[in-house]
Amino acid sequence: MVIDLTWCTLDGGDRGAAVVVMGSRRWLVRDYDGKTAAERIAERRERLIDAGVELFGERGYAATSIRAVLQKSGLRDRYFGESFADLDSLLAAVYSRLIDEEISGCAAAIDKTNGGSEGARAMIDTITRSFEKNPGKARIKSREVLSGGPVAREQRQAGLRRLAELVADLLPPSTALNRSDVLLLGLSIVAAADELLMTWMDSAEGLTRDRVVDVVMLLFDATAHHISST
């Protein structure tokens, strides 16, 4: 039980912290501008991720430094290490945010369909339109994440598995295949789509957005037909 709560002054006289005493233990709980220390740390982390999205999308991972991220975020040097061990960890966090956005958009698009092939088309259509609308974010998801270290690569694999789960849920049910088999098929479609997206972003093979959608759907429908016939 808290037995003492005393406000003290910080930074030139502003009331900025409370000393909380519980038994023989004491904590200093800072509260600037009505925000807790944890809230301020979370805000600074988001500012660093915002900067990472912009810089990785414009310059690329290899051409971005921690110093550049700090300058873009408007934060002091000491605050980078507060949230991230290195630039690879920041890239992983940037990718995680972008894949969360992508999966949320795909799920919303799928929910408006009857599932199956219709849902799969809505999913790849959503992804390609997002790539077209946000080329910087597309660059990070399709190319820059591959330039990172082990943390970013692990995050990418986790992101692809999450997308594979969405695809697997759209494939027809089968008594001949277990869930892990269906997930592998979903991952195969996602991996192929990811390569097509990279090729499209590189303006290679004369690919267009519509062509990417059609080829991915060819893969999905062929897989779904095979499952249904087994």
Report on this structure:
Helix content is 66%, strand content 11%. The chain is elongated. α5 (116-133) crosses α6 and α7 packs across α8 (179-201). A 4-stranded antiparallel sheet has the order 1-2-3-4. It has helices at residues 37-58, 66-73, 78-83, 87-111, 116-133, 135-142, 150-170, 179-201, 209-229; strands spanning 4-10, 14-22, 25-32, 35-36. The protein is α+β, with helices and mostly antiparallel strands and 230 residues long. Residues 1-15 have low confidence and may be disordered. It has 2 domains: 4-32; 88-229, Tetracycline Repressor, domain 2, CATH 1.10.357.10. The longest helix is centred in the middle third of the chain and has 25 residues, at 87-111. It contains 9 helices and 4 strands, in the order ββββααααααααα.
